[in-house]
Amino acid sequence: MTSRCDTASARARFLPWAPLLTLAIMLGPVVAGVLGTLAPAFGYMPALGGDGITLNAFTMLFDWPGITRASVLSVTTGIAATLLSLLVVALICAAWSGSRAFRIIERMLSPLLSVPHAAAAFGLAFLIAPSGWIARATSPWLTGWDRPPDLLILQDPFGLSLIAGLVAKEVPFLLLMTLAALSQVRMRQARDTALALGYSPVTAWFKTVFPRVYAQIRLPVFAVLAFSMTVVDVSLILGPTTPPTLAVQILKWMNDPDLDMRFLASAAAVWQLVLVIGVLLLWGVGEIAIAWLGHRWVASGTRGGATRTIRAISLTAALLSASAIVFGILGLLVWSFAGFWSFPDLLPSAFTLKTWMRHALNLWPVITETLIIASVSTFVALLLTLACLEAEERHGLRPGTRALWLLYVPLIVPQIAFLTGLQTLAIFTGIDGNRMAVIAVHIIFVLPYVFLSLADPFRAWDVRFGHVARALGAGCDGVLWRVRLPMLLRPILTAAAVGFAVSIGQYLPTLLAGAGRVQTLTTEAVALTSGGDRRVISVYALSQTALALLPFAFALFIPAIVWRNRKGLRHA
Amino acid sequence: MPDSGLILDGVVIRRDGRTLVDISDRVAPGEVLTVMGPSGSGKSTLLSYVIGTLDTAFEAKGRVILNGSDITDLVPEQRQVGILFQDELLFPHLSVGENLAFGLRASVKGRAARREKIDAALEDIGLAGFADRDPETLSGGQKARVALMRMLLSGPRALLLDEPFSRLDTERRDQIRTLVFDQARAKGLPVLLVTHDHADADAAGGRLYQLG
Question: Which of A228, A255, A362, A492 shows the greatest Cβ crowding within 10 Å of its Cβ?
Answer without folding.
Answer: A228
